[in-house]
């Protein structure tokens, strides 16, 4: 269990653990299956159960991150079929809270990954695993200031408004720029995690703001669409572009210079440590209530280093 079996459980968890099943299906439910980021979570989940036969892992998610009702249904279905545990990346902090409470009432331990549930629901899940999204947003902002300077316009290309990861990541990026520079923020604009939408939005923004000095794409599909728009406009290398996440498309954009950098989360670690955490709960062990899965700012200079290769996918 590495370093995660160290801290006391929060109020209410010990009673749940005693009634939970000790073996069986662990349902990993993510925001969408149509993303390399979430597929990498699946790989981590598979790694967590390798070499043992007590548990199996199922992997599912809706067709898009904005299909919140579909994700709620997937969690309900998992509860109804009596899974042993759930690892969940909630697409909406409010909409997923009632079904997580229902899992708790059914004695099914839950690990939340990537994005938090709405405040007040902490008693219904056992641990939260995520990048420190606020710290990641601030790191991206400082990287922007270092490269673009302290004055000018920076466009913020976000994904789904109100999602926990977006609130921390984009909010802290914007707040950090406001406190530490005179950079003017254009946006944020919301792609709904659709690459084509981000491409079209970025194309329009580049045309309307020829004086941009920087642009930030806050998740994988948004950053890919942003990067492609920059390339199509012939502006690669002419402004400081920073992405988020680390699939092959974004790696190529860093290598070509379209992106100065991309902030890469430990998506594999979310799946691996999330499944390990709920297996620990099922075994009666204690786990930390927050597990930081980390972030690495990947640039052309460090992309081939072990620290970057360990998080790229």
Automatic annotation (TrEMBL):
Gene Ontology terms for molecular function: carbohydrate binding
Signal peptide: 1-23
Protein origin, superkingdom: Bacteria
Chief location of this protein within or outside the cell: other
GO cellular component terms attached to this protein's record: cell envelope
All residue ranges annotated as the Periplasmic binding protein domain in the record: 26-285
Location(s), subcellular: Cell envelope
Protein name: Monosaccharide ABC transporter substrate-binding protein, CUT2 family
């Amino acid at each position: 269990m590495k370093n995660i079996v160290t801290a006391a459980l929060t109020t209410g968890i010990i009673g749940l653990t005693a009634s939970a099943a000790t073996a069986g299906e662990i349902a990993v439910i993510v925001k969408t299956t149509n993303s390399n980021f979430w597929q990498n979570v699946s790989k981590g989940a598979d790694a967590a159960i390798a070499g043992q036969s007590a548990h199996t892992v199922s992997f599912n998610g809706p067709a898009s991150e904005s299909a919140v009702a579909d994700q709620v249904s997937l969690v309900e279905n998992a509860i109804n079929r009596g899974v042993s545990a759930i690892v969940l990346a909630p697409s909406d902090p409010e909409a997923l809270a009632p079904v997580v409470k229902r899992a708790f009432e059914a004695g099914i331990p839950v690990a939340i990954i990537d994005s938090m549930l709405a405040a007040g629901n902490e008693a219904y899940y056992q641990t939260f695993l995520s990048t420190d999204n606020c710290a990641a947003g601030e790191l991206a902002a400082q990287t922007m200031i270092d490269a673009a300077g302290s004055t000018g316009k920076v466009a913020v290309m976000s994904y789904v408004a109100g999602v926990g990861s977006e609130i921390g990541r984009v909010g802290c990026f914007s707040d950090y720029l406001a406190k530490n520079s005179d950079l003017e923020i254009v946006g944020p604009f919301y792609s709904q995690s659709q690459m084509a939408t981000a491409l079209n939005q970025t194309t329009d923004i580049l045309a309307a703001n020829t004086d941009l000095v920087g642009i930030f794409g806050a998740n994988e599909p948004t950053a890919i669409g942003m990067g492609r728009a920059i390339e199509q406009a012939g502006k690669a290398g002419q402004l400081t572009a920073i992405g988020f996440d680390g699939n092959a498309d974004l790696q190529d954009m860093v290598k070509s210079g379209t992106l100065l950098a991309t902030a890469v989360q430990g998506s594999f670690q979310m799946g691996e440590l999330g499944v390990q955490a709920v297996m620990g709960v099922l075994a009666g062990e204690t786990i930390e209530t927050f597990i930081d899965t980390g972030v690495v700012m990947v640039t052309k200079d460090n992309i081939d280093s072990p620290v970057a290769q360990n998080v790229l996918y």
